[in-house]
Amino acid sequence: MERAAGRAAALQRPRVLLALLLLLALTCVMLLDGYLRAEVGGDERVRTGASAGDVPDDVLDGGPILTFPGGRATTVSVPDKTIVLTFDDGPDPTWTPQVLEILDTYDVPGTFFLVGSMVSRHPDIVRNMVEQGNEVGVHTFTHVDLSYQSTARVTREIEQTQLALAGAAGITTTLFRAPYSSETDAIDDYSWPVYESLGADGYTSVFVDTDSDDWKRPGVSKIVEWATPEDGEGASVLFHDAGGERSQTIEALPKYIEKMKAKGYTFTTVSGAMAEQQSTQPQQSPQPQESQPAQQSGGGLQAAHHRATGATLYEGKALIAAVAVAEWTVPALSAGLVVVGVAVMGRFAMMLVLARRHHRKRNRRRFGWGPPVTGPVSVIVPAYNEKECIEATLRSLARGTHPVEIIVVDDGSTDGTAEIAESLGLPGVRVVRQANAGKPAALNNGVRHARYDIVVMMDGDTVFEPDTVRHLVQPFADPSVGAVAGNAKVGNRRTLIGAWQHIEYVMGFNLDRRMYDLLRCMPTIPGAIGAFRREAVLQVGGMSDDTLAEDTDLTIALHRAGWRVVYEEHARAWTEAPASLGQLWSQRYRWSYGTMQALWKHRRSLTDKGPSGRFGRVGMPLVVLFQVVTPVFAPLIDVFTVYSMLFVDFRAALLAWLAVLGVQVVCAAYAFRLDREKYRYLLMMPLQQLAYRQMMYLVLIHSCVTALTGGRLRWQKLKRTGEVGTPAGSG
């Protein structure tokens, strides 16, 4: 058995890894999308008023184009009667295409200084921009003031933008413009080392000497006026094709071009201006990274552009592909999570309303199922290596107030479980031995040996209160009732893991059962405590070993056979919950995977007719939605919350998370009130949401992966300590 369990565990490890990798991949996609908008803790500082004592005077007073031939700073002015139209902060999907259309209409080239994150999100626009004959330059990746950044950050900002350009248009560029820069006299002692370093790498830094100030939205006439240089002088003119509402820029641009052409001006790119001004001493532009000169769309060479090759090209394409995935995934997730969030909140509301109705109905004065059920019943205890727990289990049954026969079905135990049960000498206890065949076979064997019409099934690690059996069998006074679910409680709740499971049992399982009871579509009789009509169990063929959730399988089969399944909250059983994370993972993995198997096995219940089809019409959709679909997407809510805290609005995201936590606390508090539990355990809910719940998500994802890959599991035996020796108090 141990070797088989080891082999099963070894087979499951790749699926666990795959589940973790899926969640990691999704997290990486969301982090990439967030990085495209702003780095973690986005730096919005802009330096003003710094001294420029280290900057050469001829640079401060020179032309708008700064180069470093031979390591010496040199400025170049735009030739007279020439305009270099430059645009910052793009590409933007709304405004940049309109700018390109205007430039194409007037046969005017532009030089666009692009933000790398925007390039990676809108590669088609950049590709069209270059094919149209425009020039592009680097405007950093996240639009930060580089004078505040480390050398490594500066390098990263430039290289990532070059990769984005390589992936989008197959080129790199030697042109650079720093964010928040304007004329050369704005260079200070903090930014000068950046320009020197980039110049040494072959970059040409481009400034302006005429600023339209279109970002201020002063009106079309003012934009045209401010963008016009002194008569006859050449100019590097700044417009913006992104970064805000640019309708005034779009309206002013044609008027400006027409005005300047009427004055006899020509339009060129930065490279064109440099070539014209330095025609007497042509210089070879350095080529950063692996690149070759790129052909301008109209023929000839464009000195600032170089064809990306080798690793640069492929890494760029990979970046664009990853961003495309992120750009599709995050909005889709946003929409999906809205639906999931509404469903989860709707479930909480429905649970509260129906749980209240259930509690009032079940506890109404003089309410009853019919004449009291007083006849003896059979209690079946399947046991495999339960030496730590079996004595406490059997003694709790012997103390019961309802007459019972106790059938211990020893499923091939090797630790003396059967001998312990026999040695106790308790009245009414019979031990039935069988070769190890699994829990379903043990329960079926017990049903065959049962003498009475009502059989109670429990686990070998569970302890009943004296009145548990009496409460549990009373609903059978109604002849339509085929099975009754009891109220399973966590007995070993003193540890952190036990306390978390205690909250889960009280809030999740028992509120759910109240809701499903009123809707008459309860999906599961818990293995720890459930009662059945023997006739009903035999009618549906007994416990099946087709699934790992034999209790869910049997419950659904009873619904489909026309039997009613109800919940009796006063029938309490104290069970030993897994005491380690590994044991907990194994148990919940079996539960969730077995539930999926049972739902798939009974998928035809969706088309069942009449009263027996109620589970298919109501229960099946609810179970699939609330126990499979929404829990699978639930971890994404947490990932999205972290994403929002880092990249969107920390305060709003935190408040939203606290609001959801508050709703859950309210539901849990009401559940604790109904079960008369002490509220002190609710103090652990925030930590439960941060740690325990994430594990449950991974378990469910692991189960889904196993289901999709066709894996199978065996009935697994959890390690027991025998800690739940006597019925615990409710606190």
Number of helices: 22
The number of distinct β-strands equals 21
Range of strand content: 15-25%
Strand order of the largest sheet: 16-15-14-17-20-19-21-18
Describe, in short, the structure shown:
The chain has 731 residues and is of the alpha/beta class. The longest helix is centred in the middle third of the chain and has 53 residues, at 310-362.
Describe this structure in words.
- This protein is α/β, with parallel strands linked by helices and 731 residues long.
- Helices cover 49% and strands 15% of the residues.
- The strands form four sheets. An eight-stranded mixed beta sheet has the order 16-15-14-17-20-19-21-18, with helices on both faces. Strands 3, 4, 5, 9, 10 and 11 form a six-stranded parallel beta sheet that branches. Strands 2-1-8-7 form a four-stranded mixed beta sheet.
- Helix 5 packs across helix 6 (151-169).
Key features of this structure:
21 strands; disordered N terminus; 731 residues; alpha/beta; eight-stranded mixed β-sheet; six-stranded parallel β-sheet; disordered C terminus
Task: Describe the protein's topology.
Layout: H1 2-37, H2 57-60, E1 65-67, E2 74-76, E3 82-90, H3 96-105, E4 111-114, H4 116-121, H5 123-131, E5 135-138, H6 151-169, E6 171-173, E7 175-176, H7 192-200, E8 204-206, E9 210-211, H8 220-226, E10 235-240, H9 247-262, E11 266-268, H10 270-277, E12 291-295, E13 301-308, H11 310-362, E14 377-383, H12 390-398, E15 404-411, H13 417-423, E16 429-434, H14 439-449, E17 454-458, E18 462-464, H15 468-473, E19 481-490, H16 496-519, E20 529-533, H17 534-539, H18 550-560, E21 564-575, H19 581-601, H20 614-647, H21 650-674, H22 685-709
Parallel strand pairs: 3-4, 3-10, 3-11, 4-5, 7-8, 9-10, 14-15, 14-17, 15-16, 19-21
Antiparallel strand pairs: 1-2, 1-8, 6-13, 12-13, 17-20, 18-21, 19-20
Helix pairs in contact: 1-11, 1-20, 1-22, 5-6, 6-11, 8-9, 11-16, 11-20, 11-21, 16-21, 18-19, 19-22, 20-21, 20-22
